[in-house]
């Protein structure tokens, strides 16, 4: 087991196999020394724990917890592409999408769930640039979706 696997155990996090794609794409792809994930939904045991718009049907704190799940799923996709998370040198960029009620403006707080998790796992190598975007709807009615780009060691 590697250093990051040990850290995941310390944090009581378990990575499963990436969810099967819901379309014509792959969960993650290696491009040179970067791995880019597809958008990851907060799927747990093959299903979304909740659906709806943040700020109306879904509480922002619940959505923040779901963003953590998205980040965990992104780590699983990255590991499936490169075999070992110890190869991650830096989390470069996180893009988070929040299915938002019309008057909801707390997208950054929701996506902090993903950003904070990556910091817990990778330390300073988890610091990244980020966008947090409110959208009208997400696939399958998900409240949040996150994509992650990391730089890997040669």
Automatic annotation (TrEMBL):
Protein known as: RidA family protein
Record's superkingdom? Bacteria
Residue ranges annotated for the Endoribonuclease L-PSP/chorismate mutase-like domain, each copy included: 6-141
């Amino acid at each position: 087991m590697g250093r990051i696997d040990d850290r995941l155990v310390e944090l009581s996090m378990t990575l499963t196999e990436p969810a099967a794609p819901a379309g014509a794409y792959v969960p993650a792809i290696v491009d040179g020394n970067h791995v880019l994930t597809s958008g990851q939904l907060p799927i747990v045991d093959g299903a979304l724990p909740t659906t709806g718009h943040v700020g109306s049907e879904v509480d922002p704190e619940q959505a923040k917890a779901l963003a953590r799940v998205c980040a965990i799923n992104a780590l699983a996709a990255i590991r499936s592409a490169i075999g070992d998370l110890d190869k991650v040198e830096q989390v470069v960029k996180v893009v988070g999408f929040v299915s938002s009620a019309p008057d909801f403006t707390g997208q950054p707080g929701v996506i902090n769930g993903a950003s904070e998790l990556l910091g817990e796992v990778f330390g300073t190598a988890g610091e990244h640039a980020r966008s947090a975007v409110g959208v009208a709807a997400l696939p399958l009615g998900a409240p949040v979706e996150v994509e992650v780009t990391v730089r890997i060691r040669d």
